[in-house]
Amino acid sequence: MTRKRLSKSALLLTAAFVISLFTSPIAAQQDIASVISQAEALNGTGDYTGAIELLRPALQQSPNSYDLLCLLADNITEKARIESVTASKEESEASYMEAVEISRRALEVDSDDAEGWYQLGKALGRLALFRGGKEKVNMSKEIKEAFETAISHDSLHASAIHGLARWNREVANLSFILKAAAKIVFGGLPPASNEQAVTLFLRAIEIEPQDCAHHLELGKTYLEMREKDQAAESFETVLRLPNSDPDDEEWKAEAEQLLSKIRR
Hints:
By secondary structure, the protein is mainly α. Helices cover about 80% and strands about 0% of the residues. It starts with 7 loop residues before the first helix and ends with a helix.
């Protein structure tokens, strides 16, 4: 008995069905989840370049994926931060501008989630280093608003709390001349204080007690306040904590250096 041949139309329908199995929303979601998982793993080891190389093509396939957008913005910002020592000013600035643009795209997809606002605040904070005058003042206001909005959507977002704490410290410790100039020429900066920075860093530590960066920045804030004993205690904590982040060795080296200055 001869095998019945499929008609051309039947073959086309069969092929379409098989293709649909691999291009269905469920399969696409699984692919995105896999890319995100791999990119997060690379990010966790400090391989930001590898993560970006995974995320860019995935985003071309799923341009409105909020998670892909946030993760790509994060890795671009972190890569630019690490490479800022060797990269040109133009290269660093371009990277931070891209991270800002991608963060804004994420917020167009979902403005009710904390991560997009946090990534925007972080990227703007880095970009502000390359700006001056009125633009820097306006960016400072937007940075604060971005971190505050992130926290309003997720009160346990320790990174956003950390970002707002650093904003408070940096603005609080601007020179009198710079603050006066900002007030006269640009209408002034939002209120900020070292005391508020300490409160926020302590809150971040309460959420993530093993994070070296929280303790390090708390110690640096205490130094600004001339509270050397409390600063030393924070730096000693940094040195005791186990490494859990690619930057922990760098944070510990800085903590050790600052601690040695206090003890002189």
